[in-house]
Design a protein that fits this description.
The protein is an alpha/beta fold. The chain contains 18 helices and 19 strands. Strand 2, helix 7 (about 155-170) and strand 3 form a beta-alpha-beta unit.
Amino acid sequence: MSFLAIPWVYWTIVAIYAATVLGLAGIIVSENRNPLKSLAWVTVLLTFPIGGLILYIFFGRSIKNTRMISRRKKRALKRLEEKATLRPDGAEPEVVAHSNTQLAMMAADISDSRFIPDSGIEIFTSGKEKFESLMADIRAARKCVSMQYYIFEDDELGQRMADLLIEKARQGVAVRVIYDDIGSIGVSRRFFKRMAREGVQIHPFFRVAFPPFATRINWRNHRKIVAIDGRIGYIGGMNIASRYISGNKKFPVWRDTHLRVTGPGVAALRYSFAVDWSFMGQPLDLDSESAGHPQCVPAGSDQAGSRHNTLPASVQLVTSGPTDRWSNVELILLKAIGAARKRVWIQTPYFLPPESMLRALQTAALARVDVRVMMPQRSDSAILTYASRSYISECLRAGMKFYLFSAGMLHSKVVIVDDDFSSVGSANIDFRSFEHNFESNLMIYGTEVNSELRRLFSDDMSRSLRLRLQVWARRPLHHKAAESIMRLLSPVL
């Protein structure tokens, strides 16, 4: 007689398992999430107990309100940021006037993001130009380079970047790198170990190793941030990969948007990097200019000069992630869209908006705001392409305009509202970016940056197919079926 054949053993195991499943279902309900998502998880757990339990462990857990950094360290880092962003006379910066005042104050309240005037913005849409500029700035670094990317490929560009970082580390520059373990999962560990051996402080964000961190696979650090000597910063949508320069087999062009930031706005990028660095358990030497989240150069020092294509702007860095109480980036964009009077122009590689975002865009269009959405005609994911297209028909009926970029892969994450507000960063218009990923977007208050982004958007329209409702409605039936099926998966894609 086998052990499991003993009745009391069998029923004990069944009872424990049932209690586990029902307990998890109770936890899901008690978290007061979106009712549809809660109901979906409860249904999966009750219908497929074993598979549902595994899926929930990997993809269903919540880490909201998890503290990323101690209060003591946060206060110390905030003091450094504030010192670097004060006006030359020591006065606090004034928040923008009129239409964007509430938006700026909201961003400050929900994400603790400081409003920073007198910054400079240079816009890159060419990977070649962006990486040439970035590598030139790194070569000129004197004290510190803090770098964070979702993907750090071991290709031609990745090797060049690794060699440069090693060179700067040998020169005594403090070089710190964060890469996402899932985003760079196809890269050999030898590639990163070589940099570590040569003095580069490099660490993965949420290393996926069994068993301890397997449950973190759903939370990805999608940010792309660089801060150099406290004087120069970069933020946007480009990862470190050669495809942004020369394309790949699938797409001859990878069109993206990235920013070079100078002036006091760089302090916000340094602060964001420091929080993530600390969250991964890395020490911060707050008393040293060369360690952790360094001041690197004293406030008010050389601001990296001004280049002819640098535009003036006030900025706020809004970060968002699964540890935050609010979906910070989503709420800021919702506020901006709701206040729009002229236009809302969006570039995104994937368009899977939460219901609130979908209704906000439709409402704006119905109110005669010029709402335009541009996404790739074909993205790097067939599933996401079909899921994104499932929203087009109802948006067209509301008066929104849709453009499918046909010259390659559109990876840009840009939102343009009216004449003086823009957002550029890492967040896509989708569930994953708003709820599961660690993201960072630079909110920009300034007519000149807005005007230049509009010009670039218009240029991209000439390389895009505008969709018309009558034509779109005649697409093949099997495409419509695939879109509907993939849409069901949109909250977890």
